[in-house]
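Consider the following assembly input.
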Amino acid sequence: MFNTYRRGLFITAFLAAPVTLYLVYVISPYIQAFYIAMTDWRGVSATPNFVGLDNFVRLFADGVFWKAVTHNAALLVLLPLITIVIALFFAFLLNVGSGGRGVGGVPGSKFYRVVFFFPQVLAVTVVAVLFQQVFRPDDSGMLNAPLMALGLGPVSFLSDPGIAFWSVLGVMVWQAVGFYVVLFSAGLASIPRDMFEAASIDGAGRVSLFFRITLPLLWDTVQVAWVYLGILALDVFAIVWVMTDQQGGPDYSTTVMATEIYRNAFEYFRFGYASALGVVMFFFTIGFAILSLRLSRRERIEY
Amino acid sequence: MSNTPHITRRGLLRAAALAPMAGALAACATPAQQAPTASAAPAATSAANPFGVAADKPLEIWIFDGGFGNKYATDIHQPLFKSKYPQVEIKHNATKEITKVLQPRFAGGNPPDVIDNSGANAMDMGALAQDGQLQDLTPLLDAPSWDDPNVKVRDILDPAVTEFGTYDGKFSVLGYVNYIHGIWYSQKAFRDNGWEIPKTWDAFLALCETIKKSGKMAPFTYAGKHPQYLYEPLLTMAAKIGGNEVLVNIDNLADGAWSAEPVRQAAEAWAEVGAKYLMEGTTGLDHVQTQTAQNKYQVAMLPSGSWLENEQKDTTPDDFEYGMFPIPDFTSSDKMPYGTLHTQPGESFIVPSKGANPQGGMEYLRAMLSKKAAGDFSELVRTVSVVKGAGEGRNLTPGAQSATDALAAAGANTVYYRWRTWYAQLHDEAVAATGQLMSGGVTPAKYVERLQKKADEIKNDSSIKKYTR
């Protein structure tokens, strides 16, 4: 009896601090955001007026915000797809892609494994500034210098509204791939080696090894990656804000929900409206999370 | 920041809250009503102390640490203020992030006493005015000037200052620098190549053609990443063609203000420059990169303002000799004469009405407007101040001199617009559309149509406060 009491006290003591912090700094701001979304608060007043659902009505006619939503939607589809395909390919080559006898990575795979992880180590802002230079439209740009030397005109990676979005996507993929190579490598390591060996003794080539062994056995990990990358696609902010021209431009061609929220809050000083956008984004994110958890229920392969 | 630790905490929380729920500020997001700080009874007023500054009340000052730095405040303004009020403790602060640092102070009801609310991260003046956070500075205008008790402060200021600083009928923002816009060039490059300042638009286009053919440099560029650098000459030109009311109508969100013929003509003119005479890669370069290209003699001309010379002081060759010329005549029937300039007071100083020492704040501004302070300032940061005649007899740099001369030549023919600060949404739309106009993404007709649509949208949005001039 006394021991049970002691144990409960012990657990409570440990949980009290994190739960309090979580309530004060996570749950309470969320609730406040719902309230602010129904006011006309401009950030300086001590007495914002309650305006009901006005901000939400306004939001439906906001062309720029819906443009941002379509960009998030495009990222939601493309970012996980491209990243996972590339990361799987690399992870496979680094771990079981040697092709010859035995199971191992391509020559130098230890070195590549480290190199691929570099982008993940860099702060997002650093990556954004770095790529501003890489994408420079003159002969000091890392991509344009060789293009111009070949006689192909400079490509406006960030200043052409038709290309800028793809540049953003490219940078996000570049930064994300390294982490998922590591994640998938860990997944691969948990697959018994003898499966690969047995398959290659039976004459399976690299391609059939990949599609018949690696992918099915990694499916759980791929699903996790999909959810992570989906969330990354929904709350992308810093890359767009720092790297693109006019923070989401040119001509709103790269803007996303988070940048529109920031713009409305800290540039237009419409904190009420920005909170309404935040509430909408909250529901998009929650919706995605529920949907992906539902869809990803699938029988595990036991081995 | 050292004496206000809770700001850092708030800033940190705000950053943390930005991630998935950017709208939710932080635990302390919702503003709390606070009892106004009871300000001590002001000291008695006199001719020498028109606002009744208490002799020993501390004064907290925040300077935007941008192109002009903050040395002018600590080395020029504050010693001058101290010389009269030696017991007042001045708490000097400088930041590039005015909004992040000071906005929570307003929301918390304890703003500082003087703020240089400038730069890309300045607080929205309209929002502050709407909420009654700005001290009415009319007493400052009517107070005797620092140098001469018989001259009012109002009479030593450029008239645009009062115009620009007035919100809701109250003068509450003091612009300290007179920004003079024009086309900037190297006097040396023009002299060496025998290029003449173009007085008409045809001559300007001919000059662009000559420079292009010479192969020595590109004719024209602008900060492609920040197309507001280009909509400035575009609108000044529209005002020149159609008269000052073009800009007044745009500011007042009048029906058809953007789709008016002069704006379309100006858009067409600049679209032609965009199509033919831009330096390669312009659309992807920012103001620093294009201005540096000019310093390297890679491009002849760019639109900018009188802050340019100081901004570029580290990369400008010694014999570069900055100069500026006004927008050329579009046709001989322009409504405004040659030499018309767009001028605009900048570096906006405010005194928060709910601060602890607004009297001291106003007195600090009065000290800044003395001839000595303004003249020393002009020399230190190579620019033109709003205090009339403060630059006289001073050793001005070529660019500052050129701008000063252009201003004198323009006389009363100066124009300005205010929609940029009044309607930030319209500014962003104009930036996006102007970039497209210059790269050929939209036609001039579509350009004005697009901006007209946005202006109408703002006009019909009841949540956006409207201003008129």
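Chain A has a mean pLDDT of 87. Ask yourself how this observation constrains the way the partners meet.
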